[in-house]
Write a structure and sequence with these properties.
Blueprint (H helix, E strand, L loop, with lengths): L8 H6 L20 H14 L7 E7 L5 E7 L2 E2 L4 E6 L3 H8 L2 E8 L4 E11 L2 H9 L3 H9 L9 H17 L8 E6 L3 E6 L7 E7 L5 E6 L2
Antiparallel strand pairs: 1-2, 1-5, 3-4, 4-7, 5-6, 6-7, 6-8, 8-9, 9-10
Helix pairs in contact: 5-6
Amino acid sequence: MNAPTPRPFADLLHAQRVWDTELPSFDPESTPPAPLPLFHAWFAETVAAGQPEPHAMSLATADAEGLPDVRTLLLHDADERGWHFASHATSAKGDQLAARPHAALGFYWPAQGRQVRVRGPVVRCTPAESHADLHARSTGALAAALTGAQSEVVGSVAELHRTADAAWDRARAEPDAEAPTWTRYVVEPAEVEFFQGDARRRHIRLRYRRAAGGDWTRELLWP
């Protein structure tokens, strides 16, 4: 029996559809004066809608030459200080943030046709906060942190497995083990944009911008 002929990529791509479900309404006139309460509300709603991994987000930084870089990681908190995440200070993102301490975050929640974008300066938390962040997570997260050498070249998959297995053993035996380069970061928001998709492409984009005095202004953007 002959295998089916693969479809050209362009045909496969153009056949995809988005938002094959009823999307929630969004009234920007009824939004709070600051973005954090709205983010908390949208996050709770997307969890209730069954969105897988709603705490996953894209983190965009720039390297020493100003070239963009992006990766996906997990949100650790969102509070009055800002949006929190963590990584090794010696990783590629850690080096980039040390040289250019600004970043952008992107959340995409297709279950409700929503996006949230956050931009602003990035600050490092204290060593005590970073230690508490790591040890509030799972054994697997600790093992990954203890593996170290994030973003460096690894010689082989076998070396990766040996090092990871040893890190798992240590994490189980020493649940309070230190990972000295593990660092919690906070994106202090200067801009936060909420995007609500619409099946008829009448998307609503609401942007919050922080003024010099710390107050927020709200404005609608063309989609």
